[in-house]
Specification:
Length: about 325
């Protein structure tokens, strides 16, 4: 997954623009929550389905000929993100210094399935695999767009100060917007293949675009411990980033019987993201036409503390169906 993000923030009655170059300028208003939610939902759904398909599409023993599988799936993750912002009520847009200085703090927000399911404008998650002997190639696509998502601001962290929690009772009408496109492409080779177990090693890339906006509305502003700055009662933060990360990992399945198996997937990497990793573990049941999988998946991307989008994580259940041909 790749991230690139000019970010816009609106704090109190001011509007500020923030980018990875750390330049801040006054503008209008932006929303971050909706964007993050959509992106999260998209990423989770597609990634989960893809990983599941790649691991359950073929028998554990090495097949002959060329085999194809396609797995549409649904991933319902909880989305956690951390976005940097300039603190309001100070000169220079609240950045505490001249334009170009690092951001003064970060906002930690969370969006759950109940917040975004009814707000989706678009969602597509699809995974595919091609196998020829011990060799394999896979793709995983996640596309999500959601607006007007209900979300929560859990905490904010001023630069140089401890993390400050925000009570749920202070969140009144915080919303988010989310747009995400995520691709994962891999090439692999079978390391273990028998009637009971299959294990593939692989390398590839995760890339795409993440856009998220959060508009928060609290019942009261929060004064910082040094009392010369505040976290505004109302504000907006936005991040947009293109990213491309190299990844390596293992995937496969362990057969419990004729129909039941345990698919698994793990990858780690980096590039545009400082670190990224993904893991999936599930249960699969085989029918004559293909497989049905239920699993739990986690995807994490972390960036430099001075980046507009510092952290983006998706965790939740997924359900998919693999069709083989």
């Amino acid at each position: 997954m790749r991230l690139h993000a000019p970010t816009h923030f609106k704090l109190a009655e001011k509007k500020h623009s923030f980018s990875d170059s750390r330049r801040c300028s006054s503008e209008g208003k932006i929303s971050f929550s909706g964007l993050v939610k959509k992106t999260m939902v998209m990423c989770l759904t597609v990634g989960a389905a893809t990983g599941a398909a790649a691991q359950t599409s073929t028998p554990t023993s090495t097949p002959t000929g060329t085999l194809f599988s396609l797995t549409p799936y649904i991933w319902l993750p909880t989305i956690n993100s951390k976005i940097n912002y300039p603190v309001s009520s100070l000169p220079n847009g609240g950045a505490g210094g001249p334009s170009g200085q690092a951001p003064d703090g970060s906002v930690d927000s969370e969006i759950g399935p109940n917040d975004y399911l009814s707000k989706l404008n678009f969602a597509l998650m699809l995974n595919g695999e091609v196998r020829h002997g011990p060799w394999s190639a896979t793709f995983d696509y996640i596309g999500v767009k959601a607006t007007g998502l209900g979300s929560m601001v859990h905490s904010f962290k001023p630069l140089g100060l401890p993390n400050i929690p925000v009570s749920n009772s202070l969140n009144t009408s915080t919303t988010s917007t989310l747009k995400t496109t995520l691709w994962t492409l891999t090439g692999g080779y079978e390391l273990i293949g028998n009637e009971r177990m299959r294990l593939d090693g692989f390398a590839g890339a995760r890339f795409g675009n993440l856009n998220s906006t959060v508009d928060w509305n609290l019942s009261a502003q929060i004064t910082l411990p040094n009392r010369d700055r505040v976290f505004a009662r109302q504000g907006s933060a936005s991040a947009s980033r293109n990213f491309a990360d190299g990844i390596v990992g293992v995937r496969g399945s362990y057969r419990l019987g004729e129909q039941w198996s345990i698919p698994y997937y793990v990858d780690v990497g980096g590039g545009a993201s400082q670190t990224t990793w993904q893991a999936m573990l599930g249960a699969s049941y085989r029918f004559s036409w293909g497989d049905v999988i239920v699993a739990y998946r986690h995807l994490s991307m972390r960036n430099d503390e001075n980046s507009a989008l510092t952290q983006f994580e998706l965790s939740g259940p997924l359900v998919g169906a693999t069709f083989r041909f």
